[in-house]
Task: structure prediction
Amino acid sequence: MAGACQRLGQGGLPHPTRFEVETAAAFLWFYEENCDIALVEVGMGGAEDATNLIQKPLVSVLTSISRDHTKFLGNTLTEIAGAKAGIIKEGCPVVAMEQKSEAMAVICKKCEESRAPLVLAGKTDDRLMNISLGLAGEFQAENAACVLQVLELLKKNYPKICRKTVREGLKKVRWPGRYEQIYASPDVYLDGAHNEDAVLKLHASVNRSFPNRRIIYIMGVLADKEYDRMIHTMFREGDRVYTVTPPNPRALSATELAKQLQKEKIDAIPCENPRDAVSYALEAADEQDVILAFGSLYYLSGVRTAFRELLGEYEVHGSIIT
Result:
C-alpha cells in the first residue's frame, strides 16, 4: 500500500488521505477474500467520497440526512442532500428513510434523473412487530425498517435471506457506541451522537427510557461540529456534565466545551482525560442514576477502557420493539 501511494506521488498526483488509503485497503481485502457482498459505509457526503467509485451497487441506502460536515457539504439541507444523493447510480435501486421535505425532494429528483427505483422505509413497518433488536434506542426502529427494505431487494439474488435469518441477524447485531449499555447499577451508556439530529434522537431515547431518573453526562466533541445546537438539544439548566478532549487534531478542548456549557447554566467540569471523567461521574452517581457518555466516537473507547479498569468486566445487550 505504501508503494502504491509513492507511485501516485511520482506520477504527479497528490498523496491519498488516510481515509482513501483505508478505502483502497478495504476493497483489496474484499477482492482477496472473494466476498459475496460488502456493506460499504460512505465516509462523508457521497458524491465526492472515496467509496463512491462503485458504479453498479446492488442497492444504494440513504439513512437520516441532517446538518453535518457543513464546511464540506453545504450549509443547507438541500445542499447536503445533494451531496448524499451522489451515491445514487443509473438504474440501481435506492432505499431511503423518510426525510425532511427539502432532502426528500432532492432524493426523488435524483432518482428520477437516474431512473433508479426508490423505496421508502418507515419505522411503522408492520414487519417490525415483535422483532427483538440487539441494539437499544427507539431510533433503531427506523434503521431496522431500512434494513428490512434492503434485504427484501437482495432476496432476489440471495435466496438464503429468509425471515428466520433476518430475525436472528437483527437480534444478534452489535454496534459499539450506539446507545450501548456497558454497565448496570448505575446504568452506563455510550453513544456516538455527534450532530444535532443524532443528539435529538438520543435525547428522545433517554427521555423515554429514563423519565424519572437523573442523568450524569460525559461529553466530548470536535470543534467543527455544531456543538452549540447539540447543547441546546440535549441539556437542561442544572445538568451535570464532565467534559473530555477527544484524541483528534480537530477536537474542541474540554475547557472550551465546559465554558460553552456553563454559559447555558449547565454544571460542567472539564477533565484531563476520560478516566478522570469516568471517576468523577461514578463518584457523583448512585445506583439509581444513569451515566451517559456521548459525542465524538474518537474518545468513547477511552471511556469504555476507563469503566473496565474501574469496575471490571460487564456486558448488557438487547431491546425489543413492540
About this structure: Residues 216 and 238 are 11 Å apart (CA to CA). Residues 18-33 form the longest helix (16 residues). The longest strand covers residues 215-220.
